[in-house]
Specification:
The protein is about 30% helix and about 30% strand. The chain is α+β, with helices and mostly antiparallel strands. The protein has two domains: about 5-70 and about 145-330, 2-Layer Sandwich (BirA Bifunctional Protein, domain 2), CATH 3.30.930; about 355-450, Rossmann fold. The strands form seven sheets. Strands 3-10-11-17-14-13-12 form a seven-stranded mixed sheet. Helix 2 (about 35-55) packs across helix 9 (about 320-330). It binds adenosine-5'-triphosphate. Adenosine-5'-triphosphate (ATP) binds near residues 178 and 322.
Length: about 450
């Protein structure tokens, strides 16, 4: 059974070192979280699962890692500076500030139920910066609120350095910052978060085909790579489209409080490259863009066969890595009744997502041969290069098993007196709790098989 409440995950995250409140010892900071020893591993494994699928498994997508701070003009022409805002309302009775479009009932305060609420006002979501000695506090740069725009402005750089025919994509994983009115849902809505976004550049006549292709491909990734059951995921098409979008759909996951967005797939037409290109008049743009007199580069594509020079359309896939991790933790969380009033909490992660791939436990710690052999096994498993291998040299075996169940370690390997006699170790499996003895020489092969699952 998955977690019944996000609170189960919050408690596990703190207890076992996945996620801590940001600036905790100074009272915290709304919408900022710090990822602990196992949280960084799980995030890294999710990123890798995405990067493997989007880049290494294909010929048509390149990676990029753009700066987090960027020139104000970038966000002027992307439209963010003028319109990247949420409708903010304030309750005159209790002072609560809310996003009007996310209120349960827009006429009543979510906090106290009062109907005495202010008119909505646009609240700028971007975090402005004042960079350099001459800035004197004036905003001249922004922390990026998404990775996408920093990809569009590099379209020509990537294409010139690595020629591609349409369709092709550019993918990025990185931080984004939004001054959210009300961060909520643990890491669901934060002010600093991480996105994994891919912009796929297509011939305008192919846009609908690739929009459908990416919907299907991304949904399959959630089930196959993250292990989320298909029935816990759904598409929610946007009814009210952004002015530049031709079609948009959210991929939603069934969180304990209901379905909510984890990823978006968008047909953004030629809005983005069209907004940032030089000489906009030379192109017949479908989207309405701001006149751009500052860009120094044409973000267009020349078709070698037809000789046509045009602005490609963009199909975007935009995932929140923190939301993916939250969904994965909720889905793999289980509290098992073991009978006799005993129970255990276990994180049934797909092994390639597990923060620790295997734990090696010397059963007796005062016998040097057992400890040496345990260290030898650890070294061998580390040599596989598949992630974190832990040596457990404290606590009793029961406590070690409990801890590794809770952080989702697929196997524990125990070294004991018998190991010295017959060269076998005990493997204890996380999900079934079954144990078997196998030859020490076979441990690495076994672990490799498990981690592939
Ligand atoms: P929402 O409607 O929830 O505000 P959005 O539609 O603005 O999200 P996008 O701009 O499409 O989101 O961003 C892509 C993904 O980034 C989202 O699907 C989500 O997983 C993630 N994301 C967006 N905002 C946040 C946030 N404040 N905290 C954590 N993840 C976020």
């Amino acid at each position: 059974m998955p977690a019944k409440s996000v609170n189960d995950i919050v408690a596990l995250c703190k207890r076992r070192g996945f996620i801590f409140t940001g600036s905790e010892i100074y009272g915290g900071l709304g919408g900022a979280y710090d990822y602990g020893p196992y949280g960084v591993e799980l995030m890294r494994n999710i990123r890798n699962a995405w990067w493997n699928a989007m880049i290494y498994a294909r010929n048509d997508i390149e990676g990029l890692d753009a700066a987090l701070i960027s020139n104000r003009l970038m966000w002027k022409y992307s439209g963010h500076e003028g319109s990247f805002s949420d409708p903010l309302v304030e309750c005159k009775k209790c002072g609560a500030r809310m996003r009007q479009d996310k209120m349960k009932d827009p006429t009543k305060c979510d906090n106290c139920g009062s109907t005495d609420i202010t008119e909505p006002r646009a609240y700028q979501l971007m975090m402005g910066l004042s960079i350099g000695a001459m800035a004197d506090g004036a905003i001249n740069a922004y922390l990026r609120p998404e990775t996408a725009t920093t990809t569009y402005v590099n379209f020509k750089n990537v294409l010139d350095s690595k020629p591609h025919k349409l369709p092709f994509g550019i993918a990025q994983i990185g931080k984004a910052f939004r001054n959210e009115i009300s961060p909520r849902g643990f890491v669901f809505r934060m002010r600093e978060f991480e996105q994994a976004e891919m912009q796929y550049f297509v011939n305008p006549s192919d846009d609908e085909k690739y929009f459908e292709y990416w919907k299907k491909t991304r949904l399959a990734w959630w089930t196959d790579k993250l292990g989320i059951p298909a029935e816990k995921l759904r598409f929610l098409p946007h009814v009210k489209l952004a002015h530049y979008a031709k079609a948009a759909v959210d991929i939603e996951y069934a969180f304990p409080d209901g379905f909510d967005e984890v990823e978006g797939v968008h047909n953004r037409q030629d809005f983005d490259l069209g907004s940032h290109t030089k000489a906009q008049n030379e192109f017949k743009l479908s989207a309405k863009v701001l006149e751009n007199k500052d860009s120094t580069t044409k973000l267009s594509y020349s078709d070698a066969q037809t000789g046509e020079n045009f602005i490609p359309y963009v199909i975007e896939t935009a995932m929140g890595v923190n939301r993916a991790m939250l969904a994965v933790m909720i889905e793999s969380y289980d509290e098992e009744d073991l009978g006799d009033g005993k129970s255990r909490t276990v994180l049934k992660l797909k092994p390639w997502l597990s923060p620790v791939k295997a734990a090696v436990i010397p059963l007796v710690r005062n016998v040097p041969e057992i400890v040496d052999l345990s260290n030898k096994i650890v070294d061998e498993l580390r040599g596989l290069g598949i992630g974190k291998i832990e040596l457990e040299n404290s606590g009793n075996i029961g406590k070690n098993y409990r801890r590794h169940d809770e952080i989702g370690t697929p196997i524990c390997i125990t070294v004991d007196h018998q190991t010295l006699e017959d060269g076998t170790v005990t493997i204890r499996y996380r999900d079934s709790m079954e144990q078997e003895r196998i030859k020490t020489d076979d441990v690495a092969k076994k672990l490799l098989e498990i981690v592939k699952q």
